[in-house]
Amino acid sequence: MDLDISDKSIPVFAALDSKVRVHIIQLLSKQKMNVSEISKAIGLSSPITIMHLNKLADANIIRTEKKGNQRISSLQVDTIDITFPQQLYIPYENWNIELPIGQFTNFDVKPSCGLAGQTGFIGKVDNPSYFMDPERYKAGMIWFSKGYVEYQVPNYLKQDQELEMIELSMELSSEFPFSNNRWPSDITVSLDGKEIGTWTSPGDFSDVRGRYTPKWVYNDMNQYGMLKSFRLSKHGSYIDGQHSADTLVTDIDPTKNSWTLRFEVKSDAKNVGGCTIFGNKFGNYDQGIKGTFYFS
């Protein structure tokens, strides 16, 4: 489960604010249990136990199902990641862009792969030829098991301006046929042929539905990713503020009209677990690939 600091996340925070409910989560991490079993294990009456279970279910931390007269509860999430707002004061001018994720200009991908839009799949799934379908610009989610996709990022620098730093953000996850919440993948991001860093995605998530994922997407398909921040500065490259490579922003050619942004799962990576990129009206963040370019 991927959370941010917003009102939408409050039910989860509230559900975890209880020693009793934390104990219930620990119990359900080992096996499914009915109400009477949980009630006995935590030493509380069934009505009070049900009240705690309802709070956990409302937060999508557990799921419940009925089998005859029994109410069976099971744990629904493996991990909970919280993204805090990032405030970085930069005393430079800047320009911003947002690339639709279907606006890639080059690719070499292997199945499982595909593209999805607001009303359904774009072209045929697991056929890389459809990555050149004219409708690809409408994609809100693209995925591939290995290979790469590339985007052209416009360069608006003037001759008398100097590039100081680049910030990129996008929603990413691994790729597994349908989904697998524990499926690590090494996703490498590079700009202008220079690696910014490799992030290891922990899985291809479908434990809960994405906030913006269209209703037609099956529950056991990719639902959301994690919002990742990639930074190029004069001191090195960073992923979510952690040093990831020695590539400097000065390594980027400031005279080009555009730079090539690549997302890649290398065939010789330690974890070849694919890549899913989420865009507008998909996943948990209603955005494409955002970039902020600072200059002096």
From TrEMBL:
The keyword Transcription applies. It comes from the Bacteria. CDD domains: HTH_ARSR (cd00090). The keyword Transcription regulation applies. SUPFAM superfamilies: Winged helix' DNA-binding domain. Residues 1-95 form the HTH arsR-type domain. It comes from Lentilactobacillus diolivorans. Keywords: DNA-binding, Transcription, Transcription regulation. It holds the Pfam family HTH_5. This is Transcriptional regulator.
